[in-house]
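Renewal narrative, Specific Aim 1. Our central claim is that a sequence can be written position by position from structural information alone. The example that follows is taken directly from our test logs and has not been curated for this report. It begins with the structure tokens describing the chain, in the order in which they were read.
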């Protein structure tokens, strides 16, 4: 039976390998400290946080998120550790809540590896605090217990760390928040949550680590049992459940397609659109996000299992080497062989479970990909051959593919919601990725601009005619070649702006639009907008930033990046960050506000659940295909006919 704790209450833990699940109403930073008998943290190496997410026996998330899973193996903690304190803090930054009183009460659950809840605690009564010690696991007379703490700190993470005896707590807190800001900047935006608090997703079999935890008690609704989530390979996993009982939306959906009957003892056959939703497009969107989360958690379970096997082998080898009796009669050799055999068995079972999940997800991908609408499909999908300019805006747009090294052949479409919630930056610099390092600088800049043009073409293609306009700033005129499809088709709002005067004119026009729409919204007078104001969505493509930009233009660009998305003005930048080094840290908020993608394969994006480094690959038309030009021609024709 689950123990629902209140502040100060404790409960005996029946096992030592645990998960701690955190569910909050907004992104929070999760960490943990290791304390000695007096609760003192002896140094930074005793703290697990996003910048250093693993210590012996403990692993936390590498970024801020609304849902966290912390893996704990109490037997693997150093002998001098008697207390594990779970910490939560609000990430700093403009527009983020500054106190826990402004967000839903966090909910924390201690569970076994099979997802069974042992103890729960809802952190109610918080107000001005921006950091809190949620609960602690402590050892008393050889027995581990959990205590609900709920001690908040108005001065934030630095005060909380200092209270536990951490030296240079302010500097450490600042480095943690910097790591969180960097992680949020590279993270793929998660799908929206339903009013019940559950993310649209589905549970994989026991081999994966399922979905996020339960919502706070204040917003909790009846739901199926928590997803099993073993981070260790205690038992081989079962098949992925294609029934997807927890890929859900807040409204009663039309029934999904029926799955073909499965043979006895075999997993159900995958079906495109078997998630819930009002339409097939919504069901496919939810299904793709479910596949994305399944793969993230399956790989997390595999990596954790391998780490556990290696840690266990190291501990057994250390005990063998420290025992003098192992030097007699070959006992040491036998112990070493046994330790390595256990390691190989555990990692082999974990790999088998992962490969089963990968095979089932690949089978699902094989039926989902051909069923995708144009907005979700790659350029090589036959759906583009029957393309027609849509009458409505789709839910989302595919901007590339993602994959992990464990499942190199399995591609997950990267879908972003429409209208865009943040701008996009196509990095034209020679980054640390092998593909970028192997590409000449000029070629990389050309590929970056071609990526931006293809993305702009997709946006034009999925919006109704005359509801999306594209402006281009190309100060030196260096992107004439890649821009040719947009220019020759006549879909641009005007010729690409060149020179300082062109840059100033376009920025002034879009800044005025943002100002006017914001004033109209605040005054509740949308009908008072000037008749010549284009109320459709606007996209600004900027090439070779900061070339051609003075200080005023840079300020206007930052303003558009911050304020534009909320009123329909979006930024698509093609830039090498190194070119803007002269501006120093003043541009850091600009880069962080944009979703960074690359013109070549690069493992820089993080998922919103586990924080894996996913390899991103841009969408490209098949070699020799003219699909992009044909689509733009249809968009231009629809616009001309609409103006008659």
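The sequence written for that structure reads:
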């Amino acid at each position: 039976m689950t123990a629902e704790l209140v502040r100060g209450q404790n409960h005996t833990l029946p096992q030592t390998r645990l998960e701690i699940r955190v569910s909050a109403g907004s992104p929070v930073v999760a960490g943990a400290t290791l304390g000695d008998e007096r609760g003192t943290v002896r140094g930074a190496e005793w703290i697990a946080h996003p910048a250093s997410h693993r210590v012996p026996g403990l692993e936390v998330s590498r970024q801020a998120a609304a849902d966290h899973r912390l893996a704990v193996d109490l037997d693997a903690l150093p002998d001098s550790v008697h207390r594990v304190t779970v910490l939560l803090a609000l990430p700093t930054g403009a527009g983020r809540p500054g106190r826990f009183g402004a967000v839903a009460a966090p909910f924390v659950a201690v569970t076994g590896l099979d997802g069974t809840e042992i103890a729960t605690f809802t952190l109610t009564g918080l107000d001005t605090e921006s950091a809190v010690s949620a609960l602690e696991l402590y050892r008393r007379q050889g027995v581990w217990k959990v205590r609900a703490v709920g001690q908040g700190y108005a001065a934030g993470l630095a005060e909380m760390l200092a209270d536990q005896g951490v030296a240079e707590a302010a500097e450490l807190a600042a480095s943690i928040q910097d790591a969180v800001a960097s992680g949020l900047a590279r993270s793929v935006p998660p799908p929206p949550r339903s009013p019940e608090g559950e993310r649209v997703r589905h549970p994989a079999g026991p081999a994966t680590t399922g979905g996020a935890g339960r919502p706070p008690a204040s917003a909790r609704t009846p739901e199926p049992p928590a997803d099993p989530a073993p981070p260790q390979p205690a038992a081989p996993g079962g098949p992925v459940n294609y029934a997807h009982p927890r890929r859900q939306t807040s409204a009663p959906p039309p029934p999904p397609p029926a799955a073909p009957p499965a043979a006895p003892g075999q997993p159900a056959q995958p079906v495109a659109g078997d998630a819930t939703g009002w339409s097939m497009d919504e069901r496919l969107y939810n299904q793709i996000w479910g596949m994305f989360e399944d793969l993230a958690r399956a790989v997390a379970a595999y990596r954790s299992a391998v780490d556990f096997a290696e840690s266990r082998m190291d501990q057994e080898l250390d005990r063998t080497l420290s025992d003098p009796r192992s030097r007699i009669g070959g006992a040491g050799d036998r112990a070493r062989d046994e330790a390595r055999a256990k390691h190989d068995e555990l990692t082999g079972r974990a790999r088998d479970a992962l490969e089963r999940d990968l095979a089932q997800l690949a089978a699902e991908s094989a039926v989902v990909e051909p069923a995708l609408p144009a907005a979700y499909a790659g350029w090589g999908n036959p759906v583009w051959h029957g393309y027609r300019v849509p009458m409505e805006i789709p839910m989302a747009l595919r901007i590339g593919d993602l994959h992990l090294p464990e499942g190199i052949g399995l591609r997950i479409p990267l879908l972003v919601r429409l209208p865009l919630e943040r701008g996009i930056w196509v990095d034209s610099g020679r980054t640390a990725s092998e593909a970028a390092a192997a590409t000449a600088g000029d070629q990389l800049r050309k590929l970056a601009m071609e990526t931006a043009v293809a993305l702009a073409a997709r946006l034009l293609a999925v919006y109704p005619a005359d509801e999306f306009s594209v402006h281009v700033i190309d100060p030196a005129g260096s992107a004439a070649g890649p821009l040719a499809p947009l220019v020759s088709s006549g879909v641009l709002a005007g010729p690409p702006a060149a020179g300082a005067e062109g840059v100033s004119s376009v920025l002034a026009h879009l800044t005025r639009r943002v100002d006017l729409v914001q004033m109209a919204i605040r005054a509740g007078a949308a009908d008072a907008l000037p008749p010549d104001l284009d109320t459709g969505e606007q996209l600004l493509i900027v090439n070779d930033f900061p070339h051609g930009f003075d200080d005023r233009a840079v300020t206007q660009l930052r303003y558009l990046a911050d304020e534009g998305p909320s009123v329909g003005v979006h930024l698509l930048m093609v830039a090498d960050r190194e070119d803007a080094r002269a501006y120093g840290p003043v541009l850091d908020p600009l880069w962080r506000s944009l979703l960074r993608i690359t013109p070549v394969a690069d493992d820089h994006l993080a998922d919103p659940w586990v924080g894996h480094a996913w390899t991103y690959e841009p969408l490209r038309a098949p070699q020799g295909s003219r699909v992009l030009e044909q689509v733009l021609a249809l968009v231009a024709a629809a616009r001309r006919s609409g103006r008659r």
